[in-house]
Design brief:
Length: 549
C-alpha cells in the first residue's frame, strides 16, 4: 500500500455525495432515503426498450456503488480522504474493520508522513542565495558644484559595493544528510540518534575567517520543551576561536513560544525572546544583554487573508549601537515567487532599502544604501518608489503572465478530460431520457396543487455579453433533472458541486459555474442564480419576480 501511495491521487469528478444529493455529514437515514428514490427512477425492470434498459442498468449500478461506499463507515472514511481512487488502492488490509473513521484518518496521516519522508530522502533539494549590495548615496547627498567641470559629473555615481553568491545541494543517503555549499556556508551532516536526539556536524571552508568545525545537538525534553546546544572552532591566522551556544525553547500556549539563549565567544550575549504566531499576526519581543551589543527589539507583522498572502510588518530596535526603525511588506506574486521590500531608518546607519525575491528555492537579495543620514527625500523615495514600480510591473508583466499561464493550464485540462466529459455527457443524456416518465408524474402532481414547477434551468458559465451562441456553448439545459428532484413542492440541493447530480455534467471544465433557475410556485414566477457549490433550497419569497417586471 505504501508503494501505491507514492503516486498522487487524481481528482475524481464523480462525487458520490453529489450523485445522491446529500450532505457530506448525511446520516444513514438520509442516505437510504435518497438511494431508494434513485433506485425507483433507474430500476431496469421499469423500462421495456432494450437501449433504455441497458442505460438504466448502468446508472442503477452506479447509484448502488455510491450507496455501498457511503453507507459503510470504513469505506466512507477512506473515500472522504482519498476519493474514489483510494478505494481502488490495494493494501487497505491495514485498515481493520473494527477501526473507526478517526483511526483511519490517523493511519492515512501516518502513511503520508512516511511517504513525504521517503520523497525527502530520494530527492535533491538545491538552494541558493544571491546578494548584491548597491550604494546610491550619491543620489541624495552630493555637492553639485564639485562635479560641474568633470566629464559626466552631472550624473550621480551608483556602485555595487559587495556581492555574495552561495549554492547548496541537499541529498540523503540512508540516514546521512549531506549539504554541499559552494559559498563558504557550513556543510551539514545530520544523523538521527536514538532518544529523539538530532546531531549536526558542520564543516566550512572558503570564508575569509578560515575553516570552521562545529557540532549541534537537538533534544526534546518534554512535549512542550526542547533544547539545543552548539559548539564550534574557528581556525584563522590569529589562532583558534572557540564558541558555544545553548538555547531552550518552550511552548507557552498554542500560539506562543518562549526562547532563552546563551552565547559564548567573540560576541557573548544572553538573549530572551517571546514569539506569538497566529493566523493573522506575528509578534516578537526580544531582549539581549551582551558584549558588544545589547538591545531591545519589538516587531509586529499582520497577515492579510487574501489569495496573494500579503503581509505588512514593522519593527523597532534600540540599543548601544543606536536605534533602527523598519517597515515593509511581502506578497506572493506567483505560485512559486514571493517579493518583499523593507525600509530601514536608523541612527547612525541612515536610510536603506532591502528588496528580497524568493523564487522556489532560490533567494535574491538587494540591499540598497540610500543615505548615511536621515533625509526626508530618501525616506519618501524608499517608500513610494518600490510601491510604484511593483504596481507597474504587476499590471504590465506579472498579471498578463499569470493570466496566460492559467489559460494554458485550462486548455490542457480540457484536452486531458475531453474523453471523460464525453462519457459524462452521454450518461447525463441517458439519465434525462430515463427521467421523462417520472418528471411527467411529478409535474402533474405539482400542477394539481399549484406547487413547484421548474420552467427553465441552465447550468454552466454565463457570459455578460449579448451573444446567445456563446452563452449556449457554455451552459446545458438541466430543467428535467431538477424537476425530477422536486419532492413535496420543495427542491433542496447540497453544497457539493452540481456537476455530479443525476442528469448533470461539467460543460466548462476548470471554469466558474452557476445554476440559473426560472420556476413557478403558487402561480407566481420566481428566479434565482446560485453558485456551483452553494446549497440551494426553493421556493423562497425573495426569489419572486414582480408582476411589473
Amino acid at each position: 500500500m505504501a508503494a501505491a501511495l507514492e503516486n498522487e491521487l487524481e481528482v475524481d469528478n464523480e462525487d458520490y455525495y453529489s450523485l445522491l444529493n446529500v450532505r457530506r455529514e448525511a446520516t444513514q437515514e438520509e442516505l437510504k432515503s435518497s438511494y431508494r428514490r434513485l433506485c425507483m427512477l433507474y430500476h431496469p425492470d421499469k423500462h421495456r426498450d432494450p437501449e433504455l434498459k441497458r442505460q438504466a442498468e448502468q446508472l442503477f449500478n452506479y447509484v448502488h456503488q455510491a450507496y455501498e461506499v457511503l453507507s459503510d463507515p470504513q469505506s466512507r472514511a477512506i473515500y472522504d480522504i482519498f476519493g474514489k481512487k483510494g478505494l481502488e488502492v490495494e493494501g487497505w488490509e491495514v485498515v481493520e474493520r473494527k477501526r473507526t473513521p478517526a483511526e483511519i484518518r490517523e493511519e492515512y496521516e501516518r502513511l503520508q508522513r512516511e511517504r513525504d519522508e521517503r520523497r525527502l530522502q530520494q530527492r535533491t533539494n538545491p538552494k541558493g542565495t544571491i546578494s548584491v549590495g548597491i550604494d546610491v548615496t550619491d543620489l541624495f547627498d552630493r555637492y553639485e558644484e564639485d562635479f560641474e567641470d568633470v566629464p559626466g559629473g552631472g550624473f550621480p555615481h551608483i556602485e555595487i559595493n559587495r556581492m555574495h553568491i552561495s549554492q547548496s545541494i541537499e541529498s540523503q543517503l540512508l540516514f546521512l544528510k549531506l549539504c554541499l555549499c559552494l559559498s563558504g556556508t557550513p556543510n551539514h551532516f545530520r544523523y538521527c540518534c536514538p532518544l529523539w536526539i538530532f546531531v549536526n556536524t558542520e564543516f566550512g571552508a572558503g570564508d575569509i575567517r578560515g575553516p570552521l568545525f562545529g557540532m549541534k545537538v537537538f533534544r526534546n525534553v518534554t512535549a512542550r520543551c526542547f533544547v539545543t546546544a552548539q559548539w564550534g572552532l574557528q581556525f584563522s591566522s590569529r589562532g583558534v576561536r572557540p564558541s558555544a551556544t545553548t538555547m531552550m525553547a518552550r511552548h507557552l500556549d498554542q500560539n506562543t513560544m518562549g526562547y532563552l539563549q546563551w552565547r559564548w565567544g567573540s560576541q557573548s550575549a544572553m538573549t530572551t525572546s517571546i514569539v506569538r504566531d497566529t493566523k493573522t499576526s506575528h509578534f516578537t519581543l526580544t531582549l539581549q544583554l551582551g558584549v558588544p551589543h545589547s538591545y531591545l527589539m519589538m516587531s509586529y507583522q499582520y497577515k492579510f487573508q487574501d489569495e496573494d498572502q500579503t503581509k505588512v510588518k514593522g519593527s523597532i530596535k534600540t540599543g548601544f549601537f543606536g536605534t533602527v526603525v523598519e517597515y515593509g511588506a511581502e506578497r506572493k506574486i506567483s505560485p512559486h515567487s514571493v517579493l518583499a521590500a523593507t525600509v530601514s531608518i536608523g541612527v547612525p546607519q541612515g536610510v536603506s532599502l532591502k528588496i528580497r525575491l524568493n523564487r522556489a528555492s532560490q533567494t535574491y537579495l538587494f540591499p540598497i544604501h540610500l543615505t548615511d543620514q536621515i533625509l526626508p527625500s530618501a525616506v519618501f523615495y524608499a517608500t513610494v518608489g518600490p510601491l510604484a514600480i511593483y504596481l507597474a510591473v504587476q499590471k504590465l508583466i506579472i498579471m498578463p503572465y499569470v493570466r496566460a499561464q492559467k489559460e494554458q493550464e485550462l486548455e490542457k485540462q480540457k484536452e486531458d478530460s475531453a474523453s471523460e466529459i464525453a462519457r459524462r455527457k452521454q450518461e447525463a443524456e441517458a439519465s434525462v431520457l430515463l427521467m421523462q416518465e417520472s418528471v411527467k408524474r411529478i409535474i402533474d402532481a405539482e400542477e394539481s396543487k399549484m406547487g413547484l414547477i421548474i420552467l427553465n434551468a441552465w447550468y454552466g458559465k454565463f457570459v455578460s455579453d449579448n451573444s446567445q451562441k456563446r452563452e449556449r456553448a457554455k451552459v446545458i439545459d438541466v430543467t428535467v433533472p431538477l424537476q425530477c428532484l422536486v419532492k413535496d413542492s420543495k427542491l433542496i440541493l447540497t453544497e457539493a458541486s452540481k456537476a455530479g447530480l443525476p442528469g448533470f455534467y461539467d460543460p466548462c471544465v476548470g471554469e466558474e459555474k452557476s445554476l440559473k433557475l426560472l420556476y413557478q410556485f403558487r402561480g407566481a414566477m420566481h428566479q434565482v442564480l446560485s453558485g456551483d457549490t452553494e446549497p440551494l433550497k426553493i421556493p423562497k419569497q425573495t426569489h419572486r419576480i414582480n408582476s411589473e417586471t
